[in-house]
């Protein structure tokens, strides 16, 4: 209804937001926090797995502890959060599980082996879980896999593809990714890749011989796109060590 002044504003809603600090890489922490949520807020009907980290080192230069952290946060955490909240969803046959993975969970690149492996793992987990829910005929529980291209959050600052291609594939704005993901969730879309060109890259990777994929990567400048990012991280690490007298 159209009106003047305050009448044009959205109706006031008494919403409450609860926040909890939880190390999702530690299953005991996840289970304890999930129990707190159930007691203080209630049952969870929408689970969004979005936590992600990256080591920023070449494989042979990466400490084992950072590799383990990447796998625990980016992949293993999906098991713990889902095990914590899925039982009630199954009981009610109602809920939505959202896995925020990455385009690097569908096709890989050099230099970020731990990150790619963790995101491939998250995608595999999500797909297997989706099939399990379908096999159990739990049609009231929806799943959505979100695979965005490089998002401009600073996580991969310095990552560069071929300069002639960059205007056509710039880093995505977080707000755009959120809108696309929300639209997919609200319409029960099983999967969303942003931008749409990522669907084509995934399809080409699945049908072309490996050497042809290598040529495509080199043309796009995607074969070594993470190298500037890794170099920046290494330089920042060296500067911090110098400042601290290490």
Automatic annotation (TrEMBL):
List the molecular function annotations (GO) for this entry: all-trans-retinol dehydrogenase (NADP+) activity
- Gene3D superfamilies on file: NAD(P)-binding Rossmann-like Domain (3.40.50.720)
Subcellular location(s) per record: Endoplasmic reticulum membrane; Microsome membrane
EC numbers for this chain: 1.1.1.300
Q: Does the keyword NADP apply?
A: yes
Location (main, coarse): endoplasmic reticulum
List the InterPro entries: NAD(P)-bd_dom_sf, Sc_DH/Rdtase_CS, SDR_fam
- Record pathway: Cofactor metabolism; retinol metabolism
| Superkingdom | Eukaryota
The identity of this protein, by name, is NADP-retinol dehydrogenase
Q: Which UniProt keywords apply?
A: Endoplasmic reticulum, Membrane, Microsome, NADP, Oxidoreductase, Signal-anchor, Transmembrane, Transmembrane helix
* UniProt keyword annotation of Ribonucleoprotein present: no
Q: Which family does it belong to?
A: Belongs to the short-chain dehydrogenases/reductases (SDR) family.
Q: What class of enzyme is it?
A: oxidoreductase
Q: Which reaction does it catalyse?
A: all-trans-retinol + NADP(+) = all-trans-retinal + NADPH + H(+)
Q: How does it sit in the membrane?
A: Single-pass membrane protein
Recorded GO cellular component terms are: endoplasmic reticulum membrane; lipid droplet
